[in-house]
Design a protein that fits this description.
Order of helices and strands of chain C: HHHHHHHHHHHH
Number of helices of chain A: 16
Number of strands of chain C: 0
Strand order of the largest sheet of chain A: 1-2-3
Structural class of chain C: mainly alpha
Number of domains of chain A: 1
Structural class of chain A: alpha+beta
CATH superfamily of chain A: Cytochrome-c3 Hydrogenase, chain B
Chains: A alpha+beta (408), B alpha/beta (172), C mainly alpha (311), D alpha+beta (119)
Radius of gyration of chain C: 19 Å
Oligomer: heterotetramer
Helix content of chain A: 40-55%
Radius of gyration of chain A: 22 Å
Largest sheet of chain C: none
Distance between the termini of chain C: 39 Å
Strand content of chain C: under 5%
Shape of chain A: globular
CATH topology of chain A: Cytochrome-c3 Hydrogenase, chain B
Strand content of chain A: 5-15%
Number of domains of chain C: 1
């Protein structure tokens, strides 16, 4: 076939849970060109942070990403604590580590399900999400919410862990470990899965470094860049961490790294529970943070999470820059997609565990300060979309819609 | 503080080449070397040195900051020992022109596009492509992360920026 | 009058329609239970159908105004016609004639062709890719499926589904010979019905819903109905070939028909819950490398046995 | 390890008669942990009107006003739970324990105005 077909994947597409646009040029079923377009989720969060106090910013930063929410707030809190010159209590550090590892469990189980769904293996999705639900219950019990746990505060954590909760966590961790052994076996031996995951989305060792890939993507290419090992934070200087690496350098390798990391996380959670020190869970941090700048890296489930915080001596930060893990992995996406089949596109995209909100971060949307709400009504929105398409040479304005449809 | 061997080593390599930077670039803490802002010609010289000879061959991100009169750009690099180098460049707001590093580090592309959109930086030699991350129809000349840009004056429905005539000059 | 009743009400179109909705429900609930989920309530397929019927049906501006709405009807007509030649409460179908096997097989190919045409006439890129896949897939599974269904016919020495059913009903042990053909038929049926692992033409996560991406409202409702009916017909044919037990009592025979088709459905549901969707080139390779040789082997065995066995 | 398709079959068949892990919502029984952060509760008698909660709320979802007189104070908290992000920072900020969280999470509604409640 001489003619190439251009397929847009996104901004709205069943395989994308958030908006992004991949313009895929196909030759038959082979991808010959891929253009990655994001930015649909820019919420202006960094600007919003500058207008709020450090304490309020924790909750904004936590909502950068729905899945790695804890690690974002940990990173931010660490930056601010470094600026304020406070050391958090050991117990708080252990609780943060515990939450981070529980979060890794739920994030990786979520990813496993998504990966299953992208290759049409819905049973795996249902099973792994069922198990993830147990972890989410634990997180809700500890933090108070299912995803944005809100357990971090400046100078420590907000909630303590009780002995009964520890027992519950142990039980869940046992179940998850048991289940995960099965997933490891399944991932390694199911032929249809291996046939779909193996050999696609290649990103070699050198390319991983060149494109600045982080997390499971680079570890699958034998780049040992686990921040928990190279630059220990929270309680990771005491908790034994093994960085999992793999030499497949493809989607299969990323799967292996993730399922094995779940096993590691389980061990770390047990260690945290066994060695939880006594003491306070938080120290007081002044509202006004001394002038300075801090750049802190942590290991999110998706890879290296970096925050830059600059303070100007007031109770509001001067600049907050969030570089989420997914953002670093996007750069190699074009390279990974080209040369593979259309059928592999969703799973290759999913394999970096993309988080579009993380990438695009934020901009303010409800005008809380003035209390005004800007609600676009249906008609205005339609007008807008018609004009948007008109500007691109497509006239959708001729489609007649009965007024009774405009009840909204 | 005694184990900062890798950091000291990386720092001494830079200081050896640029002795006049003594005091302007220092180890802030474990795994972090931080510099003070440099003008464009000096920055480009230092940058190309640390990348080629300094061993900082891994690019993480570039952070844009608003320093008031100037725009600051913090390039985050790391080397084999995972030591972070925060190299700062500054450019005046009146002509915030910097050179793209995309040729050396392809992963700088989005970060630099972000500088263009959010700070109004002029990034020379930036590859063609869509804007990122602001939406279509964003009014030209609006750079949200500059300090003088206030969210309150932005009309989100019509996408226009209407600063009140009285405010904006002296008070802010 | 009786013939009209038979064709239109029972066991004809109306029964097929109701049974198809029930089948969709069973399929979804079995699939859900296998995945440890609750699954939909019993009226979900009917509710979906009615909802779709009531929705606005959009024909894309670039699509052919006449072919586009006609295709779902053609698909539904083909499968309902095929149903008339499948035995239900006894060993014989409603309108048996010698050679109806061939007719049914061709009638069952028509829905796939309409899927292809539907995708082609929708002119959407997703639909085009989906229709290309539908056609590529057709060429892969059709050959093993035909051979898998023809080999029992060879042994029974008849080209009539009713005849085959009656033959194996009289010689129940002979179906053991056809086990490889049964396996091939079940696998190829997944392709015919476009279910995981062969649901490439409508692979949701890749090309949205492939060939049906532009279909909406009543057109899509009819298409979905045709797919559900196809599921019933295929399950009925496979059970007539490979589970040919029946009794003279029409009532018990009818119950037996339900049990047999549900067993086939269960196998199909398990099949689709344990595998990942494979790529088109893997699908083609699999069909030609494994399924077709297996089906050929079955044919050779049956030809040889036919000479040996006292029939 | 044996390789082959359908490795999960045994696991799948085991689930045929197993109790489903999901519930039929809203009919089924919903288990909410008592630590869950839902809608906040407010005890007006304890409130002294320091407005720390208002100051710390990241979403500007609460406001406190005195509806009594200056001598006989009676505080009223207005919560917009369409804005509330359920972080319960107000609970932590309150020095007098006047605000507490409750595991009340079934707050969905169809009218935006109903989401502004006076506690």
């Amino acid at each position: 076939m001489a003619k190439n077909v251009v397929i847009p994947i996104g901004p709205q597409h069943p395989s994308l849970k958030e908006p992004a646009c991949f313009t895929i040029t196909l030759e038959g079923e082979k991808v010959v060109n891929a253009v990655v377009g994001t930015g649909y989720n820019h919420r202006g969060l960094e600007k919003a942070c500058e207008a709020r106090s450090y304490l309020q910013d924790i909750y904004i930063i936590e909502r950068v990403c729905g899945i790695c929410s804890h690690i974002h707030s940990t990173t931010f809190c660490q930056s601010v604590e470094e600026l304020a010159g406070v050391e958090i209590p050991r117990r708080a550090a252990y609780i943060r580590t515990l939450m981070a590892e529980l979060e890794r469990l739920h994030s990786h189980l979520l990813w496993l399900g998504i990966a299953g769904h992208e290759v049409g293996f819905d049973t795996l999705l249902m099973y792994s999400w069922r198990d993830r639900e147990l972890v989410l219950d634990i997180l809700a019990m500890l933090g108070g919410n299912r995803v944005n746990y809100g357990i971090n505060t400046l100078g420590g954590v907000r909630r303590d862990v009780t002995p009964e909760q520890i027992e519950k966590i142990r039980k869940v961790v046992d179940i998850v470990e048991e289940r995960n052994k099965y997933y490891v076996q399944l991932a390694l031996s199911e032929t249809t899965l291996a046939a779909r995951l193996g050999g696609i989305g290649k990103l070699s060792h050198d390319d991983a470094i060149k494109f600045g890939a982080v997390g499971p993507v680079s570890r699958a290419a034998e780049v040992a860049d686990d921040i928990r090992v190279t630059d220990p934070y929270s309680a990771y200087d005491e908790v034994p961490v093994t960085a999992i690496t793999d030499n497949h350098a493809d989607v299969f390798g990323r799967t292996v790294v993730r399922v094995l990391e779940i096993m590691e996380s389980v061990k770390m959670i047990r260690f945290c529970l066994d060695n939880l020190p006594d003491g306070d869970i938080a120290v007081k941090v002044p509202r006004k943070i001394p002038e300075g700048e801090a750049f802190v890296r942590t290991e999110a489930p998706r890879g290296e999470d970096a925050h830059y915080v600059r303070s100007n001596g007031t109770d509001k930060p001067d600049r907050v820059r969030v570089r989420a893990a997914s953002e670093a992995n996007w750069h190699g996406m074009k390279h990974m997609l080209e040369g593979d089949y259309l059928a592999d596109v969703p799973i290759i995209i999913a394999a970096i565990d993309p988080c579009y909100s993380c990438t695009d971060r934020a901009i303010v949307l409800d005008n809380h300060d003035t209390g005004k709400q800007s609600v676009i009504d249906w008609r205005t929105l339609r007008e807008y979309s018609i004009n948007w398409y008109k500007a691109r040479g497509i006239d959708t304005g001729k489609i007649k819609i009965a007024d009774s449809h405009l009840i909204f | 503080m005694s184990e900062l061997i890798a950091e000291k080593k990386a720092l001494s390599t830079i200081l050896e080449k640029f002795p006049f930077l003594e005091g302007k670039i220092d180890v802030q803490r474990r795994q972090r070397i931080i510099s003070s802002p440099m003008e464009r010609p000096l920055f480009e010289e230092v940058f190309s040195f640390v990348v080629t000879d300094g061993g900082f061959n891994c690019f993480h991100l570039v952070i844009g900051v608003d320093d008031g009169e100037n725009l600051g750009f913090i390039y985050v690099l790391s080397n084999q020992d995972k030591v972070m180098l925060l190299l700062k460049q500054s450019a005046p707001k009146s002509n915030p022109a910097i050179k793209s590093v995309c040729a050396t580090f392809p992963n700088a592309l989005w970060h630099e596009r972000e500088l263009v959109d959010l700070f109004g930086t002029i990034v020379e030699e930036l590859p063609e492509g869509p804007t990122y991350p602001l939406p279509d129809g964003w009014p030209a000349g609006n750079y949200p992360l500059r300090k003088e840009w206030k969210v309150e004056y932005f009309d989100k429905i019509n996408m226009t920026y209407n600063p009140p005539a009285t405010v904006g000059k002296e008070e802010e | 009058m009786v013939a009209l009743f038979n064709i239109l009400i029972f066991p004809g179109f109306l029964f097929l329609g109701i049974y198809a909705l029930l089948f969709e429900y069973l399929d979804r609930i079995i699939y859900a239970r296998l995945q440890n989920r609750m699954g939909p309530p019993w009226f979900q397929p009917l509710a979906d159908f009615l909802k779709l019927i009531g929705k606005e049906a959009v024909i894309p501006a670039a699509a052919d105004k006449h072919v586009f709405p006609a295709l779902p009807v053609v698909a539904l007509a083909a499968v309902t016609t095929a149903f008339l030649y499948v035995p239900i409460w006894s060993g014989s179908s409603l309108l048996p004639f010698s050679g109806d096997l061939i007719v049914v097989l061709y009638l069952l190919t028509i829905p796939t062709l309409t899927f292809f045409l539907a995708g082609w006439y929708s002119t959407s890129v997703y639909a085009t890719v989906g229709s290309m896949r539908a056609l590529t897939q057709l060429f892969s599974y059709e050959v093993p499926l035909f051979m898998a269904l023809l080999s029992p016919a060879l042994l029974a020495d008849t080209w009539s589904i009713s005849g085959i059913s009656q033959f194996y009903g009289a010689h129940p042990l002979y179906i053991l010979i056809n086990i490889p053909a049964f396996v091939v038929a079940i696998v190829a049926c997944q392709g015919k019905l476009e279910r995981v692992p062969f649901d490439l033409p409508e692979a949701e996560t890749e090309i949205v819903s492939g060939t049906f991406v532009e279909y909406s409202g009543r057109f899509y409702a009819v298409f979905k109905m045709a797919i559900n009916c196809e599921l019933v017909v295929v399950a009925a044919i496979v059970s007539a070939f490979f589970l040919p037990f029946y009794t003279a009592n029409p009532f018990i025979g009818f119950l037996l028909f339900i049990v047999k088709t549900v067993i086939i459905l269960f196998i199909l549901a398990v099949f689709r819950s344990v595998m990942a969707r494979i790529r088109i080139e893997q699908m083609v390779k699999f069909c030609w490398k494994y399924l077709t040789p297996l089906a050929i082997l079955q044919i050779i065995i049956n030809i040889l046995l036919k000479g040996v066995l006292p029939l | 390890m044996m390789k082959g398709p359908g490795k999960i079959t045994g696991e799948v068949l085991r689930h045929v008669f197993a109790k489903p892990a999901t519930i039929s919502y809203p009919k089924g029984e919903l288990v909410i942990d008592k630590n869950y952060r839902g809608k906040i509760d407010f005890d007006a008698s304890k409130c002294i009107g320091c407005k720390l909660c208002v100051r710390d709320c990241p979403a500007n979802a609460i406001s406190i006003e005195n509806i009594g007189t200056k001598e006989d104070k009676k505080m009223q908290l207005t919560l917009n739970y369409a804005h509330c992000i359920f972080c319960c920072q107000c609970v932590d900020s309150c020095n007098k324990d006047a605000i507490s969280f409750s595991p009340d999470i079934e707050l969905a509604g169809i009218n935006r105005k109903d989401m502004i409640v006076k506690l």
